[in-house]
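Question (not urgent): is this output format expected?
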Amino acid sequence: MQKVLQSLQLALLNIGYAHLNTDWNYDNVISPFTRLYYITKGSARVYHSKKEFELQPGYMYLIPSFIYSRYTCDHYHEQYYISFFEEIKNGISVFNLTPFVYQIKAAPMDMHYFERLLEINPERALIDDDPKVYDNRPTLLNFQKKNEQLSSAEYLETNGILRILLSRFMNEQSDINIKARAINDISQTISYISENLHREITVSELASFCHLSTDHFSRVFKRQFGMPPNFYMQSKRVERAQLLLLTTNHSLQQIAEKVGLENLSYFSRVFKKHAGKTPGNFRKQQMRV
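Got this back:
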């Protein structure tokens, strides 16, 4: 697993400190980046991964990219917040390769990391905490450009702090219980899928890649990821399409081809099944500021 993590890339989008009240109430939030919260005062709730998380002072919270979430605050709370892009290689998410927990008690040094990250990235705060405002292409690209303005030392320190904070959420006990070979096989399969999303991929092809029968591979894959291989591949195509819709000017047809769903009508149906809306409506809603 360590060899796979050597290619992990993290890119800061924003960092800030917020005082939030009952206006912090958003549903159907699906962002192409990961979020980290450090709660300092008050309370709120976040829903994702089929769980409810009560945000409490002295705790940190992780929300992976491309996951449905909902936020609500009944009274008031204060938080440090971070958002960043992450990938292993070729668009693969680290969340596909190793288990994570989403709530942990903060260690004494964690507050320092948030404060230091904010100190060396002082103009990265969100102007509006509404996801519909900042989950759009111009805003995301603007934050990415700011990374290029950092000095070499600031860039390395920023990246190092992000790695430290992300590592705090890794579920080491689960890692121990997963056989090394299984991790290697699955990670290679995930890499293979990601590298070939631009074309049709069959389950039998994936099974052959892992030197397993189609039925055996399907059972192992579903046990590992909680979904059949075809459904997983569709979800990855839609995730990549969402990122392209947010960060490029490509036409819907161009994006459909880039994610291996050349028939525009079929692409729209698959996208709506996973995202709850058509690609065109997704782009319009995200671009509406």
